[in-house]
Structure formats: structure tokens, C-alpha cells
Amino acid sequence: MAKRWVNDLTHADVTPRNTYLNRRQLMAGFAGAGVASMLGGRLQAAPELEPNTWEYITQYNNFYEFGTGKGDPGKNAHVLTTDPWTVTIDGMVDRPGDYAMGDIKEKMTIEERLYRFRCVEAWSMVVPWNGFELKDLLDMAGVKEGAKYVAFETLYRPEEMFGQKYPVLDWPYVEGLRLDEAMHPLTIMATGIYGRDIPKQNGAPMRLVVPWKYGFKSIKSIVKITLTDKEPATSWNKSNPREYGFYSNVNPTVDHPRWSQATERRLGANLFAKREETLMFNGYEKEVASLYEGMDLSKHF
Ligand code: MTE
């Protein structure tokens, strides 16, 4: 499968960030007022994807198992034991079983994916993930005919995840995708960020990333994947079905009952930067719109 969107979005991730920025500032200087004003409108219409810093990505998190403040996971998740780690794959598969994380990583092809990340709370980042296509993992287990959905489950270990001692959500955190969404080449299991192992606060050792959906679909620290023919329950939908649906596709025309989804605050942007317009399917419309042909997305939100 060609990975054209990778090239679309890629950047020199191995270049140390300061060098990278200096080089870009230099180039902007060379371009000067002339070229910039010639291209002005177009440049603004297609803002370049610039990754957020490692610090932002790893210190501003949602991972309620480690507290509900954005800084809590960064402070608390270090106590999580992620080695050894086993992922159970069961349900409608040919080869159900307990797979060791190390074996999974060895078999999968890890690549970089620079993706927009849009939280339902209307903030966004750009993250240089490392990971593999979920499809490859599902193919390894062999999806049986008749399977229609994939259910995911986070580790339940309240001794280490103190948040699970409080009824903030119905633990463990669970999520789900339709099988065609799960098999889509944009859908990955992330095992790294900026070429380093994924930090615990970001969902070590393996978390889902579905870039055209709100961030809460991207379930962290996964221990179980179940193929099923029934739409699986999802944590935020169970907690508040009026506000959070199963699909949760990024959609600027369907507002959250309590706030608009038309714009977003880009984290790390300069203090005076305007809110950015939210893009349909978070900018991945060309790749994924066909999955939802004929569906009323205000009803299936
Ligand atoms: N997964 C688990 N297990 N628990 C959580 O609380 N929060 C979700 C999602 N995955 C969450 C989770 C939400 S609301 C968001 S926005 C993203 O993780 C945040 O990912 P990040 O901290 O890597 O930015």
C-alpha cells in the first residue's frame, strides 16, 4: 500500500529542533518580503505542519488513570510497569492469543507518521509518532469473516494507576472502531514519538492513533483487542452518550453540546495567534470521507 500521506506530511524529524527552526527562519529571511507577499494568500491557506515540541507533547496530556489535570500524567505515570507487557487478541480471529509486546514490535514495520491531533476539548497539536499500521497487527491475528468491529481495552491496575480508584470513568478505559476504520492505512498503533520510545504518559508501550477522530478515541496502554460483530461500548459514550458518540469524527459543522467545534487552539502557537479553523476529518477528508458515504454525520457523531 502506497503511503503518500506520509510524504505529504513528513519533516526532518531527526534534525535537532533548534537547528531545524534556525534553518527555517533563515529560509524565511531569504524568501524575503517579495516572494512571501507574492504567495501570501496561498501560504496562509495551507499552513505547514510543524510538530509540537517534545515537552508539549509529553507534559500536556489526558490520561485519567493518572489524574485529571493536564500535568498529572507527566508527573505520575512513571510508576506504571510496562515491561513485561502482554496484549491479548481474541474474539473473531484465526489465531487468538496472548502476544508479548516485544514480539509484536519485532514483527511490525515501524515508521514515522506526522499527524494532526485534535482533542474534543478544541485544542490541537501536531505529533511525530512512530508506529505501525493496526491492519498489520490484525492481519497477524487473522480477522475472521463476519467481524465488523474492533474493541480495545486499557490495562486495569489500580495499584499503579491511582485514578482507577476513583469513579471518574467506568474502568478500564475502552474504545472501539468499525473494522474498515481499523484497517485504514492512516490508523496506527504508536510505540514512539520523535524516534524515542513512547513515554508512559502518552500511552506506553502501545496506544492507538486515529488522526481523523477526536483524541479520546486514541486509547492508551492497550492490553486487549477483540474482534466482534457488535458495536463495542466506549468509555466516553458510556459516561455521557449525549455528548460523545461512537464515531467521534473531527467535524467543524457538528458542535459539542457545550461548545463550538468550528475552531481550535493550536498548542504552542504564539500568544497572539488566532484560533485555527478546524478541518473536516481533521484534514484527512480526502483519505477517509468515503468511509462515511451516505451517513448522516450529525446523527452518527
Ligand atoms: N486513554 C486512556 N486509557 N485514558 C485516558 O484518559 N484520554 C484520551 C486519549 N486516550 C485517555 C486515553 C484523551 S481525552 C485524549 S485527548 C488523548 O488520549 C490524549 O493523548 P495525549 O496525552 O498523548 O495527547
Outline the structure in words:
With 301 residues, this protein is of the alpha+beta class. The chain is built from nine helices and twelve strands. The strands form two sheets. Strands 3, 4, 7, 8, 9, 11 and 12 form a seven-stranded mixed sheet that branches. Strands 2-1-10-5-6 form a five-stranded mixed sheet. The chain is globular and about 50 Å long. The two termini are 29 Å apart. The N terminus is likely disordered. Bound molecules: ligand MTE. Ligand MTE binds next to loops.
Give the tally of β-strands.
12
Instruction: List bound small molecules.
Output: ligand MTE
Rounded mean pLDDT is 88
The H/E string reads: HHHHEEHEEHEEHEEEEHEEH
Q: What key phrases describe this protein's structure?
A:
301 residues; 9 helices; disordered N terminus; 12 strands; 5-stranded mixed beta sheet; alpha+beta; binds ligand MTE
